[in-house]
Amino acid sequence: LIDGALSxxxxxxxRVLSQVENDTSQGRDILEQLYxxxxxxxRIGITGxxxxxxxxxxxxxxxAYRTCAPEKRKRVAVVAVDPSSPFTGGAVLGDRVRMRELxxxxxxxxxxxxxxxxxxxxxxxxxxxxxxxxAAGYDIILIETVGAGQAEIDIVRxxxxxxxxxxxxxxxxxxxxxxxxxxxxxxxxxxxxxRPGADHAQRILQTMLDLVKPAEPPAPAHEDFIDEESLPxxxxxxxxxxxxxxxxxxxxxGIDELVDAIExxxxxxxxxxxxxxxxxxxxxxxxxxxxxxxxxxxxxxGVPEGIYQxxxxxxxxxxxxxxxxxxxxxxx
Length: 332
Ligand SMILES: Nc1nc2c(ncn2[C@@H]2O[C@H](COP(=O)(O)OP(=O)(O)OP(=O)(O)O)[C@@H](O)[C@H]2O)c(=O)[nH]1
Ligand SMILES: [Mg+2]
Prior knowledge:
Blueprint: H1 2-6, H2 10-21, H3 25-34, E1 42-48, H4 54-67, E2 76-81, H5 90-98, E3 108-113, H6 119-135, E4 140-145, H7 150-156, E5 161-166, H8 179-184, E6 187-190, H9 198-212, E7 244-246, H10 255-272, H11 274-302, H12 305-316, H13 322-331
Parallel strand pairs: 1-4, 1-5, 2-3, 2-4, 5-6, 6-7
Helix pairs in contact: 2-3, 2-6, 4-10, 6-7, 12-13
The structure holds guanosine-5'-triphosphate and magnesium ion (MG).
């Protein structure tokens, strides 16, 4: 099954994805074996308020990567995540229909994530699915999520490049976008540029962005008197300043510029060492939470029920302090 999935057999790939998504023991086995083959894909998260045109943009971006010059062409996987819907419901089915221009292209694979169990489970399942696509040689993985809640942000954290999509007239321009979401944006997109108010929305976003992510600090006041030679070397790459781009996903205007920005961001991540840094902190977070979970599990198995209850009772009756309770529970 794994060999089939890795060699481009779509049916095997679909089966592997289901196992991983459902977190079956076979699915976990598969991830174990695939892990060494991951780490090559460029993961692009697309998030933003409902109806701003994320799916339409994903469709356009995927098409752009499939129809460009052959040497730049890339294999594209799309993961559509909709945590708000209890079923793989209307929105996602609609997405499938809209993406029909891509169907029949073997270089594209579209997967809709059903919302299973807790949201934490969804983030984990999404991570697994993304790893499978990565190992199967998809160069670009587009991950679409709705909204800006913690669940979406957890999913977006899987991405190397995050696009935040807005559209003119989506409620009150300022209210509809939260500072938190600006912080995670690498590229901001005002879609539906054909609608009135697009330039206005772009200016507002730019202003908010300048507040959240100020550009380079101002130069020192008495520059003339500083001996240039004695200054520490500037880092080789300046920080990334997220561009605010206008697109029209219905006719494709601005898509080339958007794909350019995505590619530039990837180049920036590599050139600045940020790619490895992000990867390292992701791996560290994951390792830490796994170790914590494993330690707690092991500890729980080693503490007799009666002892735990006695310590707990002593603690609630304030006969011992929390610190003492921890000591007593860890003594064994
Ligand atoms: N006028 C205009 N309409 C657009 C544009 N992009 C998307 N739409 C329309 O906006 C509607 C929503 O588009 P989607 O791509 O489904 O938006 P979405 O953000 O994926 O929606 P959810 O996944 O439900 O949050 C559809 O009817 C699209 O045809 C655009 O650039 N201009
Ligand atoms: Mg959508």
